């Protein structure tokens, strides 16, 4: 991968295996789930990097690894050039201010027994920012910025709609003035009309505060709308990385092609003309992933080599913008 | 109303007239379905679009007679299927329709598959409930059904329990049960929301193919406009329990005359759009069904709202052939005196 | 980076955001009407008030508490004063509940007995809570070996019959009020620990816990600020009901002569003293028995009502 100075975050060969255990007192290992298996990517300052994939592909595990909520089995995570996996918890504490997360479920991500004010104030309390009085001002300001009425800091989450709750979640992530916000499916639990409000809000905040986003979602059309570059994950591996326009117009990996083709476009005339590729089969279990290229059992282009050898992520771009794909027959139409 | 136009061409298999389903809760009356009218033609796929709480699922449950009474109550309406008003039938007679001539595919297959019986068991059971055939014939039929829905290794799969299936396979098994008695109408309520994108495509293709093969009609309930665009031939858009627009698929997407439909279309990002156009969301959130605003329920969120919108709810009017809308300003959209942006 | 004044006006200029703010203010005005400063506990309280049985339970508990505190003011006689002339007389205008063999006023003794019962209930449950919450948090939050060890010990406590356990502990510690507290308190911890552990296990997976962790919140902060308030409801319900159980166990211990020692009035002791006169003076047994029944019923009814009121499943 190209080393670049303006990379805010760089992930190298990150691996996370979950051990499956059986047994009552003595735990026996019963194999492992390779949730994230040797992935590398970088995020430039100020950009939005989208990470898409279906359930079980490991995209949410990546989010938790970056926040050090989970310990990786191997790999390096460089934030501003420092490997945050090597530093002590006390030094990590400093970085926790700069890396924040927005969750998928606006119901589960806010404690039902805390008021909106308590929730948004928690980051300030933990990091001992500002005294009590200026905290309240700060909270009110932030609530206003995300489009909530600052007068309602004493209300409880259950009094708000899903979209309003998600705004509270955004306020909590925003209040410490972070550099990087990891968005784990931030709109997929919301109604269509509210999704658009939240997406627009996030884009505005990015512009306003010069934020960098890692945007994780399963909905490729949403990811494409917000992202500059997109990584596609399949069974714990990144199979393709490209600028978002290019990913749509010139997908190289057959899985990306299938994924793009599976998403119906809200345009009936176009849909009637569109040739769709329906990928066969189910997503295999990550406990026993297929040999070689993990996609080969579902791949219409698969040949003998695909089941034997694992394809490497290679750059196929001729210009500065990387376009990586992990396929022996990258770009071959299906 | 729609009848006069289309009677000569295609027959209506189902007609729903002025349907109202209310729920009486501690906090007040929830008007979940409030005056729904539509007709379903033979062999078509009718889409019902709406957000959470729009009443789209309750409409389906009411048609199948699956509303729990109380707290639910069907306040008014007719559901005419095969010349009979289903709402006037006794429970015992309704059973001949439910799961037989009208059947349903639910969002979460786990809720409608019984976890303690094998798939084969449940399939045979649902066949024998409605058909007078021997157990052996039913078994053979069940195998054929699994074949039809694309489940391989049928004999072994018959002996499997629902939890041994993946999400997509479960949904296939449920579709097999739904089509076991060759229904005339298949109601699919968010059939793919819980599934992955690539599996979603498989299941929707399967439902569409089965519909064509068996010449049945499908009511496809979803919040996904892309799915609607791909599979539906006509669409009813619902908002806060009321149908706000009902038209052919092209009219809905290219010639909509209701601000809510326009807003919904403006809210979704399209994969094919080259340059990034900012989404145009509808402001606000859907109202609570207990405390509906006076007048048009959409008026508080509508940027075209005028004085009358806040006073009374606009009647659903056929503005052009087969194109219904409940909006005081629909005519202005139609004759282009009001810009759609 | 935080919005300064200019920044704010910039954001305000963005039509979309100001529109959203306007809209949210309208929406929250609607909310205002509907909820007017409601909170989860207010809602729960409203549901509790609507529940007649729970209100009866609450009334009993409050009355018993008042009696316990103000027993010396309410009681017409000294509970230990022996009035020889009236020994073992049935209920009368002077002695509402009659007198016992020593000529003591039963009514006064029952009133004073409330003190011991309520005190045992509250203190024993508090001890159970202290031990149970601590060990429950240890095993639920940190898991691993501590979890395995604590839960196996809890299993042993569970397997032991409650009364038998209490008798065993009392035999070791010797009789006395303080020891009753300890015995009942120690026996109750295992249920509290299990309850707390299981709610921690479910809450631990919630995203708001992850959010706090991602912020660098300490374990104690997560337990106190997030887990405890959210697992409060089942613990309150269980503890309320447990007060009833503690009262019964105390009565049983005193009945067996292991608990409160004479002449301190205790319902259980009064029952055992009445045993020999069951045919000749049934009131000796009837009134203390009734007091136990009513008090325990009060706590159980209240606990039941609290469960219904606090149950999040009924919410939304």
In short:
The complex is a heterotrimer of chains A (334), B (341) and C (316). By secondary structure, chain A is of the alpha/beta class.
Secondary-structure blueprint of this entry?
The complex is a heterotrimer of chains A (334), B (341) and C (316).
Chain A: E1 7-22, E2 28-44, E3 48-52, H1 59-66, E4 74-79, E5 82-83, H2 89-96, E6 99-102, H3 116-126, H4 132-145, H5 162-174, E7 180-184, H6 192-209, E8 212-217, H7 220-226, E9 229-234, E10 237-243, H8 244-249, H9 254-262, H10 268-273, H11 304-308, E11 314-315, E12 324-325
Helix pairs in contact in A: 3-4, 3-5, 4-5, 5-6
Chain B: H1 2-6, E1 12-25, E2 28-41, E3 45-49, H2 56-63, E4 72-81, E5 84-85, H3 91-94, E6 102-105, H4 109-112, H5 119-130, H6 135-148, H7 154-158, H8 167-178, E7 185-189, H9 197-214, E8 217-222, H10 225-231, E9 234-239, E10 242-248, H11 249-254, H12 259-267, E11 317-320, E12 323-325, H13 330-334
Parallel strand pairs in B: 3-8, 3-9, 6-7, 7-8
Antiparallel strand pairs in B: 1-2, 1-4, 4-5, 9-10, 10-12, 11-12
Chain C: H1 5-13, H2 15-35, H3 40-50, H4 52-74, H5 106-142, H6 144-159, H7 162-173, H8 177-204, H9 207-214, H10 219-230, H11 232-255, H12 267-274, H13 283-310
Helix pairs in contact in C: 3-13, 4-5, 4-13, 5-6, 5-8, 5-11, 5-13, 6-8, 7-8, 8-11, 9-10, 11-12, 11-13, 12-13
